[in-house]
């Protein structure tokens, strides 16, 4: 039965939306995000959005809108001084909307318009946790969320945003007050930092950014906690909220996400400690404790957080390359983080190990991972690598900066990280357009690609003769 709100939409429009969503959920999600970007580009370009009261040029408005909706965190303007209070509110709202996720958001809008959360809407929402839900055939039950639990997932997404950000903001407030800001401004800054950490965006609302809190390890730890909770993914939060003390009931997705995230985080800390102190002056003069904390902070932010306490452009080439790899992998599926996702990376590594051992199946935690999951992982990985390669080549045409800086900023855009060597802010309009496309494809492209591939798989009732090409 249609809800009261849905009656405001003409029946023909509701039927068109339902039909379009049924034929291609991934395209519907792309349309939703593209529409949101267009709306926020218009809003941010208006005089009321800037502190100066002047119209923002199209390239900067578009880039800011894409970075906001895709929770990328890159900017071409000073976020603390350029936008008016209303402009900052628009940015804040955009990050909250973008954090809901591509297909989950499309599902909610589809449900509002159609007046019900039907089977197709449930499939679309479930595909945000696992694109294989759109597969027409049987799917293994080692998945993050069962189809009947989609309503609980959507509630978890909304509650996660409200509860986690509110708690973190409340814990941050004493630190912001201690920094000397008035009460009203401190409350706003606390909620802003909390939202930007949980959504893995990385924007800062105050002049000087995190430098004002460089010695406040309580505040910085809260930033890391917010990034961690946002980057593991809503399915993991949902599963842990139900079975925190019973790991045996955790799905394979939850186990792979947590283990891979932890391994990459520890590996990143060790790599920063080994590589950077020997090669640059960024960590010069720091004691062992402070040095370890800085390495831990960087390793966390490379997951997609985007905040930084050091000048990224001063990092050594080897450290930049290692950060490139961490950013490209990103965080968990259906999270506020970007990248190809840790589960994609884990499946590729497990497949390589299985092949090296001569095993025909991919196994993890006592479960077998189907071959169609591997195909999706390979597709997402190749999609990401191709997007980064093409983006880096195009951006390099618009700047004389070293290619390692170009590659770093392009990967940061693709993985919606937000860290920059300083290159992005100096790019001409043409370069900003390329970076905007990279951010869009990085945030929306991977999951919709996986969903489209899963939905397009059909049964094949014959096999052609085999022939083995030479590989390697």
TrEMBL record:
Q: Name one GO cellular component term.
A: plasma membrane
Q: Which UniProt keywords apply?
A: Cell membrane, Ion transport, Membrane, Transmembrane, Transmembrane helix, Transport
Residue ranges spanning the membrane: these are: 28-49, 61-83, 89-113, 150-173, 217-240, 252-275, 325-353, 373-394, 406-427, 433-455
Q: Chief location of this protein?
A: membrane
Q: Which domain of life is it from?
A: Bacteria
One example GO MF annotation = monoatomic cation transmembrane transporter activity
Its membrane topology is listed as: Multi-pass membrane protein
- For the keyword Membrane, the answer is yes
Q: Which GO terms describe its biological process?
A: metal ion transport
Localisation: Cell membrane
Tell me which stretches of the chain form a coiled coil: none
UniProt xrefs under InterPro entries: Cat_transpt
Whether Membrane counts among this entry's keywords is: yes
Give the protein name, as stated in the record. Potassium/sodium uptake protein NtpJ
Species source reads Aurantimicrobium photophilum
């Amino acid at each position: 039965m249609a809800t009261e709100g849905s009656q405001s939409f003409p029946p023909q429009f509701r039927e068109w939306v339902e039909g379009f969503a049924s034929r291609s959920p991934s395209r519907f999600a792309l349309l939703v995000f593209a529409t949101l970007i267009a709306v926020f580009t218009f809003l941010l370009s208006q005089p009321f959005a800037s502190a100066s009261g002047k119209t923002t040029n199209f390239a900067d408005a578009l880039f800011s809108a894409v970075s906001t909706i895709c929770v990328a965190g890159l900017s071409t303007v000073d976020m603390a001084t350029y936008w008016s209070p209303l402009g900052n509110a628009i940015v804040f709202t955009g990050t909250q909307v973008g954090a809901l996720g591509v297909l989950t958001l499309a599902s909610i809008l589809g449900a509002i318009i159609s007046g019900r959360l039907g089977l197709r809407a449930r499939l679309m929402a479930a595909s945000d946790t696992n694109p294989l839900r759109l597969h027409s055939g049987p799917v293994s039950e080692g998945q993050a969320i069962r189809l009947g639990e989609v309503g609980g997932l959507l509630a978890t997404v909304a509650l996660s945003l409200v509860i986690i950000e509110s708690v973190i903001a409340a814990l941050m407030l004493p630190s912001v007050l201690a920094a000397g800001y008035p009460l009203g401004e401190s409350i706003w800054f606390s909620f802003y930092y909390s939202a930007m950490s949980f959504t893995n965006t990385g924007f800062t609302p105050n002049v000087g950014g995190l430098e004002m809190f460089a010695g406040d390890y309580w505040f910085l730890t809260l930033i890391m906690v917010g990034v961690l909770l946002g980057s593991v993914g809503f399915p993991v939060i949902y599963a842990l909220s139900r079975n925190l003390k019973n790991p045996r009931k955790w799905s394979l997705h939850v186990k792979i996400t947590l283990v891979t995230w932890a391994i990459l985080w520890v590996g990143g800390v060790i790599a920063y400690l080994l590589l950077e102190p020997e090669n640059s002056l960024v960590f010069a003069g720091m004691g062992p404790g402070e040095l370890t904390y800085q390495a831990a902070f960087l390793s966390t932010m490379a997951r997609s957080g985007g905040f930084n306490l050091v000048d990224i452009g001063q990092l050594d080439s080897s450290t930049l390359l290692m950060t490139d790899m961490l950013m490209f992998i990103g965080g968990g599926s259906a999270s506020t983080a970007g990248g190809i996702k840790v589960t994609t990376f884990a499946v590729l590594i497990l497949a390589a190990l299985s092949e090296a051992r001569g095993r025909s199946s991919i196994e993890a935690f006592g479960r077998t991972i189907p071959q169609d999951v591997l195909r999706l992982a390979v597709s997402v990985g190749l999609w990401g690598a191709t997007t980064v390669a093409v983006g880096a080549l195009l951006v390099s045409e618009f700047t004389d900066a070293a290619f390692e800086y170009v590659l770093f900023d392009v990967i940061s855009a693709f993985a919606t990280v937000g860290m920059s060597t300083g290159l992005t802010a100096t790019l001409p309009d043409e370069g900003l357009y390329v970076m905007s496309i990279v951010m869009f494809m990085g945030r929306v492209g991977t999951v919709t690609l996986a969903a489209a591939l899963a939905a397009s798989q059909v049964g094949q009732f014959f096999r052609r003769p085999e022939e083995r090409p030479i590989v390697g």
